[in-house]
Design goal:
By secondary structure, this protein is mainly alpha-helical. The chain has 3 helices and 2 strands, in the order H-H-E-E-H. The protein has a two-stranded antiparallel ribbon. The chain is elongated and about 110 Å long.
């Protein structure tokens, strides 16, 4: 047997081993997917059984590829003034609503203050 034929034989063995590795990796991925599906079913059953909410789980929100957590939402301003019609204003962000302008002109804005 020549050196060249020995190298061909080794190359063939390597190819067979690489094919076997690919088969095993594929089978592993299938088994992991099956196990994940089963575990998700268990988790869903427990969540349903105990009435667990998403906020109780305190999981980070997914917001797209590559980002782990969503940016924190803008804080909601406290209501400082409320009109007789139920309209509210925080007293600082953006333009003043028309009802605030009218109350200021009439000198009655302080009467609208939320206590």
């Amino acid at each position: 047997m020549t050196t060249h034929s020995k190298l061909d034989e080794i190359d063939n063995e390597i190819l067979k081993l690489e094919e076997r590795i690919a088969e095993l990796q594929s089978r592993r991925a299938e088994l992991l997917n099956m196990e994940k599906t089963a575990k998700l079913a268990e988790v869903r059953k427990i969540i349903s059984q105990y009435g667990i909410t998403a906020s109780e789980l305190k999981l980070p929100a997914k917001t797209g590829k590559g980002r782990k957590n969503a940016a924190a939402p803008a804080p909601v301003a406290k209501v400082k003034y409320r009109s007789a019609a139920g309209e509210t204003w925080s007293g600082g962000r953006g333009r003043k609503p028309q009802w605030v302008k009218e109350a200021m002109a009439a000198g009655t804005l302080e009467q609208s203050a939320v206590k």
